[in-house]
Design a protein that fits this description.
With about 240 residues, the chain is of the alpha+beta class. It has 8 helices and 6 strands, in the order H-E-E-E-H-E-H-H-H-E-E-H-H-H. The two termini are about 15 Å apart.
């Protein structure tokens, strides 16, 4: 994939996630650079729905904007830099504050678990990451530096998603399409799980079911990605 194609992917994902109410004025999408595995692409600090190709910049794993040192970049770029540093398999990341997910970040007794076949990737998600364990009791809950980003990446481990107490969640993928899908369907799963829990005790996917479902859905990701892009008026 070329640099121009990677840049367009971030723009498309930003607009898709805004249209799906996964990102609003806040949150962000990134992609590992196709030309240097130790760098990543994301937009400058801007509401996702407003992002254009001219807003995409390149950063290194120290969180420094190397393509435009004067650009105003996201405070929480260290979420991305430290996950990329620790997870060579990750090629894209979405950070969201979707409201359907927030209740699950503050309730130890209600872990997010996959309740339907589109969300097998949620199996094995760790307990919510609590920034207070690393930044003390008076932080603004933002991952503002490499040390906090590294703590979040360590907490994520090998999982596909990590919830963040009182904040939101971060989803990873092997490409922008997968990270986008996981962010959208994590929020959908939380909506369904909340409804099921209000009715009774949900029957969750087992580990083997979750793995099989995730493989099946991953093989069909282009179907969702093409649909979402078409809704934006993008050609296939």
């Amino acid at each position: 994939m070329t640099l121009d194609q990677s840049t367009q992917e971030i723009v498309d994902a930003s607009h898709i996630l805004a249209a799906e109410d996964i990102l609003d004025a806040f949150g962000h999408v990134s992609r590992r650079s196709p030309t240097r595995s130790d760098r990543f692409l994301m937009s400058r600090s801007l509401a996702p729905a407003l992002v254009t190709t001219d807003d995409i910049v390149e950063l290194d794993f120290d969180g420094t904007c190397v393509s435009d040192p004067s650009a105003r970049v996201f405070l929480e770029r260290f979420i991305h830099s430290e996950i990329y540093r620790s997870r060579p398999d990750v090629a894209a990341i979405v950070h969201s504050h979707a409201l359907s997910v927030i209740p699950f970040t503050v309730l130890d007794a209600a872990p997010v678990r996959p309740v339907f076949h589109m969300c097998g990737f949620l199996h094995g998600a760790p307990a919510p990451f609590d920034l207070a364990d690393h930044a003390g009791p008076a932080s603004d809950l933002l991952v503002r530096d490499p040390r906090l980003g590294a703590a979040l990446a360590d907490h994520l481990g090998a999982a596909a998603i990590v919830l963040m107490r009182g904040h939101g969640f971060t989803a990873v993928g092997d490409g922008v399409a997968q990270a986008t899908y996981r962010a959208i369907y994590a929020a959908k799963n939380c909506t369904v799980q909340s409804a099921a829990m209000a009715m009774g005790t949900p029957l969750y996917l087992t580990g083997p079911e979750a793995e099989a479902c995730d493989r099946a859905v991953t093989s069909q990701l282009d179907r969702a990605w093409d649909l979402w892009r078409k809704a934006l008026g993008r050609e296939k």
